[in-house]
Design brief:
By secondary structure, this protein is an alpha/beta fold. Strand 4 and strand 5 form a beta hairpin. The protein contains 16 helices and 9 strands.
């Protein structure tokens, strides 16, 4: 349960027999397969290491991941927002925060936190920010974010009866790839779409393989629908208000008839829209704790933009890889084009 067998060091290699508890993974990092070609989003370079089948930044395995498994104490009322990077994370954080905290921060107020803070400041990643000691001080219900695969979450969160709720947002792999590449190019301008594409197809990117990341959460949502809500980014774009109501109901803070009639749902959707968030001063000129400009988290936020950056041949190759990997699972992506 809390331990893991080392992943294969290369394609075709035999798995390593070494087994360790997740909380002690820092001690075996030098033994894990290494990937240095995917850029780091932080000020300091951080290569990827393959652990439990996924490519995770070494700095996370050394720090936050260990803390998550040894120090983090979940509460039954906790809500965890999970995603593969660049899959609608910023939007989901804003929507969940605004819905969950609307009694103390009505969406109509001019001093709403989202007007002064980036969504990533309102909802922290616990594998990145746990060492700051902020989570214990947060009042319940807490909303916490993670990019960790489902299999790498602490058992205290995923086990039956924990009470914790997990919300996952899934995105078309092609759009996730293009959005991730354009984001990484902000910190590594020479990083080409071909380089990003080749690595992504091999699963050698932060959190990759993307389709297996998605699959684990989808399977968990099928097994435990009361504890894991699986959302599709493309469907959220088409019907944001109905998905916000579904999200709020799942988090245990459903909207009343009076709130809906008063326009609270539409006000939250408007407050959290990409257009509105882009206009906020903090998102135009602010910088986060990782040294990344807040503006980089806001681009088009649309479905199907991959076609402006990938060739049809690239898209077909990625489609085949994903289809082969998901064959027999029962899961398929809702394609954006």
């Amino acid at each position: 349960m809390a331990s893991n067998r080392l992943s294969e060091e290369a394609e075709g290699a035999s798995p390593s027999p070494v087994t360790v508890p997740h909380a002690k993974v820092a001690g075996i990092i030098p033994l894990l397969p290494l990937e240095t070609r995917w850029p780091s989003v932080t000020r300091d370079p951080s290569p990827l290491r393959q652990y439990n089948g996924f490519w995770i930044p070494e700095m996370i395995l050394k720090g936050g991941f260990t803390a998550v498994h040894s120090c983090f104490e979940p509460r039954p009322s906790d809500v965890f927002l999970s995603s593969f990077p660049k899959s609608g994370t910023t939007w989901l954080k804003a929507l969940a925060f605004a819905a969950l905290k609307r009694s103390t921060h009505p969406p109509f107020e001019g001093d709403h936190p989202l007007r002064h803070w980036n969504p990533h400041d309102c909802v922290k990643f616990f594998e990145l920010d746990l060492s700051a000691g902020e989570f214990e001080a947060l009042p319940s219900p807490r909303v916490v974010a993670t990019h960790l695969p489902y299999s790498l979450l602490p058992d205290s969160i995923t086990r039956e009866g924990s009470g914790c709720r997990i919300v996952y947002v899934c995105r078309d792999p092609r759009d996730a790839l293009v959005s991730f590449w354009l984001f990484m190019r902000k910190v590594s301008p020479s990083f080409t779409i071909q380089e990003a594409f080749d690595l992504f197809c091999q699963g050698r990117c932060t959190g990759g393989p993307q389709w297996l990341h998605v699959l684990q959460y989808w399977e968990a949502s099928v097994r435990r629908p009361d504890s894991v809500l699986f959302l599709r980014y493309e469907e959220m774009l088409r019907e944001p208000e109905s998905h916000l109501k579904k999200l709020a109901e799942f988090m245990g803070c459903g909207f009343s008839k009076e709130e809906e009639e008063a326009g609270v749902v539409s006000a939250i959707v408007e407050l959290c829209s990409l257009g509105k968030l882009k206009e906020m001063e903090v998102n135009r000129n602010g910088v986060n704790n990782w040294g990344t400009k807040n503006e980089t988290f806001f681009r088009k936020g649309v479905a199907g933009d991959w076609s402006n950056h990938m060739t049809p041949e690239m898209a077909q190759r990625l489609d085949r890889i994903v289809e082969d990997a998901l064959q027999g699972t029962g899961f398929t992506f809702a394609t954006s084009a």
